[in-house]
Amino acid sequence: MKNKILIIVLLILPALSWAGNPDRQGEAGAYELLLSPWARAAGLNLMNTATISGVEAMRLNPAGLHFDGKTEFNFGHMRLYQGAGISMNAGGLAFKIGENGTIGFSIAAMDFGDIDITTENQPGGTGGTYSPNFIQGGVGYSHSYKDKIFVGVLFRGVSETIIDVSAFGIAMDAGVQYRGGNDGQLRLGISVRNVGPAMTYRGEGLSQEVELTTPQTNSYFLTGYVRAAKYELPTMLNLGVSYDLKFVGGRDYLRLIGNFTSNAFSRDNIGLGAEYSFKNTVQLRASYKLPLGTVAEGLDDIYTGLSAGFSASFPTRKKMEGKPEPSRFAIDYAYRTTQHFQGTHNIGIRYNIF
User: Fold this and answer.
1) Total structural domains in the chain?
2) Is 148 exposed, middle or buried (0-12, 13-18, 19+ CB in 10 A)?
């Protein structure tokens, strides 16, 4: 009991010393790090810090990389702000190494569609188009201790390219999960995300030709480079808790979720969610996230706080006595409501090998 109390205190103390800063809202960059292409997490507004597992954990809490099974493949697609023409695609792989370790790899890319090229002399467009390339790739590791305590760390490379200007950065995530109670019904989780050095844009696109005139009235042209300002990563801290109410011999459960998010460059958030699982085949989930504090007019969050989703999982063969657990194929979907546009849609497929 003393060890459990100590763990809970260690999980909570960092959150008490971390404060949101709404006055700095919008001052960070690389905000695509806050987007999740995974439908299960999106259906809970990314508040399942304490319960997330498998490939999806590399987007929220790398401690959750540890999952039931040997290998997991996950592919996700997100239609961001339906009607804006922006989407995100991602793929990930996680597999066990040894008895207590799990390693994972993930990659995600944004799709902005074709954007008209404009210049100072042709603000209406040159007739050409371009598409920015925003790509992220991460590798994470999770280690379990007696299936009670899980710790994880992840390193992610972030690349942003717009024609002939680009920026590259490194972000680190770290987290802890704890399972207690009967059959792990009580779960706690904490994660720190997007910790890393500032990024800055460089490239030929920042060059500018200027005309210089000498005292002898001779003029000539000189090419110089505009130094771009650095921008910080959108660092955040998540603190989550969940409790499972089990039914029908433990096969079905209702999971109640609470989460607190502290953002270094925007308002903090607090929220509640629930997930119901029926015979390990169908899961239904819904949540509501509420921002704390006030911001200047026009800087309200685009999301209204409501989200919902479901998952359907099917075994690839019939379970037979004396045989290994059959692999499972799953489809996930989530919808998050927004103040503008037509919401955000997530859809994904998973394949788990046991």
Assistant:
1) 1
2) middle
